[in-house]
Recover the amino acids of this structure.
């Protein structure tokens, strides 16, 4: 049945080359854990992406209940966690996944560093990777405020003070993030929400696309 | 069965698809159940809400009776005022829901000059008889819903809404 539908579409649109080009490529022996078990370190990048997918999915579902408003943010989080079926699981996935993304990304960076994979001709991909690192940290920082509890508030207070310590333009960055010169409140929360679910994910998708296209162009770096 | 030899490639395909599907399901199942929760949540039966309407003062002409209750909407609680069209049918008190059965607008008693003694919906000119029965040829496809009613200390209490019981088919 599925095969027939596929054949019908393929006959008209010739889609096989499209996915072959994406999915069908040889994995070199030195990065295949089936050949050398220690090659599992080459899986860290893929695992980072896998957790990122979980983050995107669980985040999309969380916004079905969450409201970025000082009156209702905490209440809506409490409701979705305690009153909605599997709310604890879905929020838990997003909560723990957030930390895990950072950990996996760090391990991936270490692997790239110690195998020297950042060297010519892959310098640009390292730079894009650093960009992804920054975006991920930003996602963690902006997402941390959203439950709107005391921990979130004071963590953001500290984070904004750090941003404010940048020479010359620090104060402007701080106001730009917080939405107000002194208050961390209604405008801060909506800004952080918008940055967390629209601006940074958009940047992340662009950077990830560049990251992956470059890998396919250049191939995986050779054995040590 | 034994005639179809499963090749190594097929075996790997099946096992990988199976394991992958299992993992994807484990990931997606909580999220989907989370999303469809409102559909599966059971609503408790409503309480009877007191009104200011004295039962003795009701006549055979429908009057608007407001009633307020605390509505719990997930994390948001608010006081909501709703309305019923109430009249007496002999000794029996009838309270009809003003929600039009066409597309949910609010109907008014004698809301149109040309149609006295009828409920009228201004949105698409839906009309109902006094007992809530929809008039054929107008948009609504069913009769107006009815509230359960009670009396306490001479005052009217409005209960949960139920399908119309006055219209005889």
């Amino acid at each position: 049945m599925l095969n027939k539908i596929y054949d019908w579409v393929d006959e008209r649109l010739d889609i096989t080359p499209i996915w072959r080009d994406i999915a069908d490529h040889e994995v070199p022996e030195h990065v295949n854990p089936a050949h050398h078990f220690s090659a599992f370190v080459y899986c860290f990048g893929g695992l980072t992406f896998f957790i990122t997918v979980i983050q995107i999915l669980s985040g999309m579902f969380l916004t079905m209940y969450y409201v970025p408003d000082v009156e209702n943010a905490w209440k809506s989080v409490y409701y979705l966690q305690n009153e909605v079926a599997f709310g604890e699981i879905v929020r838990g996935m997003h909560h723990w996944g957030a930390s895990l993304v950072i950990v996996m990304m760090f391990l991936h960076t270490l692997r790239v560093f110690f195998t020297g994979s950042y060297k010519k001709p892959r310098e640009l991909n390292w730079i894009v990777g650093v960009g992804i690192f920054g975006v991920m940290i930003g996602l963690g920082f902006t997402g941390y405020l959203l439950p709107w509890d005391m921990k979130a508030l004071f963590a953001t207070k500290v984070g904004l003070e750090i941003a404010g310590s940048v020479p010359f333009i620090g104060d402007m960055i701080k106001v730009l993030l917080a939405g107000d010169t002194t208050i961390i409140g209604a405008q801060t929360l909506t800004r952080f929400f918008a940055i967390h679910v629209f601006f940074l994910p958009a940047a992340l998708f662009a950077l990830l696309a560049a990251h992956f296209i470059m890998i396919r162009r250049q191939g995986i770096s050779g054995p040590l | 069965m034994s005639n179809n030899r499963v090749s190594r490639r097929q075996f790997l395909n099946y096992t990988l698809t199976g394991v992958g599907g299992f993992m994807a399901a484990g990931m997606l199942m909580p999220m989907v159940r989370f999303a469809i929760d409102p559909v599966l949540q059971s609503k408790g039966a409503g309480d009877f809400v007191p009104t200011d309407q004295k039962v003795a003062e009701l006549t055979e002409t429908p009057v608007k009776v407001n009633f307020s209750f605390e509505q719990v909407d997930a994390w948001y609680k608010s006081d909501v005022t709703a309305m019923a069209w109430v009249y007496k049918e002999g000794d029996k008190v009838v309270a009809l829901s003003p929600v039009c059965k066409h597309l949910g607008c609010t109907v008014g008693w004698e809301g149109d000059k040309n149609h006295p003694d009828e409920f009228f919906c201004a949105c698409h000119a839906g009309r109902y008889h006094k007992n809530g029965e929809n008039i054929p040829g107008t948009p609504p496809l069913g009769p107006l819903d009815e509230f359960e009613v009670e009396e306490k200390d001479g005052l009217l209490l409005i209960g949960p809404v139920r399908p119309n019981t006055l219209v005889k088919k």
Remarks:
- Chain B has two helices and nine strands.
- Residues 1-41 of chain B form one domain.
